[in-house]
Amino acid sequence: MPTPRTLVLGATGFIGRWLVLELLRHGEPVAVGVRGGAAGRDGELRRWLREHGVSDSGLTTVATDITRPGLGLSPADDALLADVRDVHNLAAVYRFGLGREEARAANVDGAVHALHWAADRRALRRLVHVSGYRVGRGQEPGRPPRRDPYRTLGAYEASKAEGDRAVRALAPGLGVPLTVVNPAVVIGHSRTGESGQYIGLAPMVEQLWSGNLPAVPGNRRTFVPVVTVDHLAAFLAAVPRYDEEPLALHTVLDPDTPSLPELIALVAHALGLDAPRLTVPVGLVRRLPRALTGADRESLSFLSEDRYDTASADRLAAAAGLVRPPVGEALGRWAERLVTDRFGAAPMSATAGATAE
Q1: pLDDT at 48 (0 to 100)
Q2: How far is CA 19 from CA 105, 115, 144, in A?
Q3: Shortest CA distance to 192 belongs to which of 312, 64, 18?
Q4: pLDDT tens digits, one per residue of 63-75
Q5: For 74-91, what is each residue's pLDDT tens digit?
Q6: Which residues contact 357 (CB under 8 A, 6 or more apart)?
């Protein structure tokens, strides 16, 4: 087995598996941290890689638990990873309705544990921490929010924001070169539409397909940007090769994403459906019963007119030769694949859950 030079945490999650595929495809020896090790979801990941035309011969699996210091690694596995130079931390619990402690254990403590572990690697080149495009919006850099975000935003988004602040604050003192990547809503593969993740915008597409979306939440200027999973995976793989500064921040999204009503209209056309003509203010959706709207209240904070600075991500993508796929075509293929997979109910799609280990 080749000595791993890259460790991917969260490798069995939606983004993580595509990143592992991208790294292996380019000959990078990769270690993946999996809860339970080879007895966990390792076999599922290896099977998925082979089905996608990539050999798993360059893949090493170690048992990890990001909620524990040292990532819960055994002494033998920790020694095996002594010369890892790049660490990608995609491990998180991505689910609405989380309790505060469950969310913090993975998304805050896990982020800090990954940082401290990376700081002990003698050959470390870079830690890549995946956050979110809405993290920290409206907050002063380096300052905690004035109001309790766990009440205002919900445990998922609040814990991601807290973890983001903690990593950025601690990395300089530990001497860890850090890149924080803030991706938009991640949709399926640009050519096949394959997803395996059924939260985010997917529930709205499901409502549209089932005839339960009479109006689009928000207004004509509401902007929910997207990025395809293959473009994001290629971007993440390129980050350690191109980022050299102590701290780099990249917001990765497709600025050509249409406004939300136009996005839903595009998806409706791809599915042969009539698009809703009405919009309903987010404030009203918040006050209506979920049984009526079908909307999770935690998801409503993502419905905004905000726009985002992608200049640094665009420069890196250009340097790496990455070109964003046409967003309209990608959205249509993703929607069609969601329907084919019955929005996660189909047996072949049930293996890709909402949590990244």
Answers
A1: 96
A2: 24, 19, 31
A3: 18
A4: 999 999 999 999 9
A5: 999 999 999 999 999 999
A6: 10, 11, 12, 13, 33, 34, 35, 40, 41, 64, 91
